[in-house]
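Hi U.,

Before I forget, here's the chain from the pilot set. I'm dumping it here mostly so it's searchable later in email.
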Amino acid sequence: MARPMGPVRLKKTSPATLAVGAALCIFILYFLIGSSSPDFSASRKATAAAHHLSPPTSPFRRSTGGGKPKPPPVARYNLNNVTITPDPLENRENILLLTPMARFYPEYWDNLLRLSYPHELITLGFILPKTKEGNTATTELQKRITKTQKYGPEKDRFKSIIILREDFEPPLSSQDESERHKMHNQKIRRAAMAKSRNSLLFSTLGPSTSWVFWLDADVVETPPSIIQDLARHDKPVVAPNCFQRYWNAEKKEMDERPYDFNNWQDSPNAQELAKQMGPDDILLEGYAEMATFRSLMAYMHRDDGHRHEEVPLDGVGGAALLVKADVHRDGAMFPAFPFYHLIETEGFAKMAKRLGWQPVGLPNYKVYHYNE
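Structure:
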């Protein structure tokens, strides 16, 4: 037989528990109500309006309360006030340093840190593929960025850094030097490179940018003063000569050899080849199967030549390239399609010339490519 239950006694809730519960309820209500209204704080407006890349992009949102919030600020930029001079250091001109990156080389980053141009005037922009190698490179890049920007000395920290990821599939599964330089891979490979360069350029070129410095991720050695050195020529497009250091087995010592063959002066033979091509065919440089007989800046170097000697160019490479921002603002980009039978950086040189900007090269001013 079941026994009747006695009276149930409830445990008295302590005042501390009630206080914690009340605070939690207030926090939840604040979060739900506050998150639905836009943040138009004065500090946020000031930061957005002063951003060197673009105007603020916060939309005007309807208020959930009774009042009408103020719209985001309108930013005004006068491009006539942006100087592009042979002495960017004296005039404190902003540099946009852009690098398409498939692999991360520590030597590349170490070289960046050695640049003598004030880092607070340099914005870095990167674009990486969505591949396994690209993921690894992104991780390593972010580690170096954190180390420099958060923990490094003030002089090493850059003005800002932007990282983009490609939104298309890479045409080649491998980035090995032997694979990416095969002739039959060039059109699809360089078309993809052109798309990356354009995405990076159009996403980062800001209204205060004076110069755009293109530097490949596998260029691991440049003079620290390269930005000032190239800018002093006051040319719209300036290309140094790209070499590669290697172990010479015959001499039993370190040696160097020309690397970038896309800096060239056109030839009648190349022009004749172009006339015989279909509309979707491209001319390539550095391949025996397509003898263009162009004059290559790689072979114009002289040990006794003046470091700042200039030569006019009809095609340029992208290993290292200083461009006045106005050239890109005028519309000169990197064609991912045959443009006068040229593509990517060589097509860019042709486009710049068509817009009235003459590229020049410095055969005796050298930078160095990584040797795989």
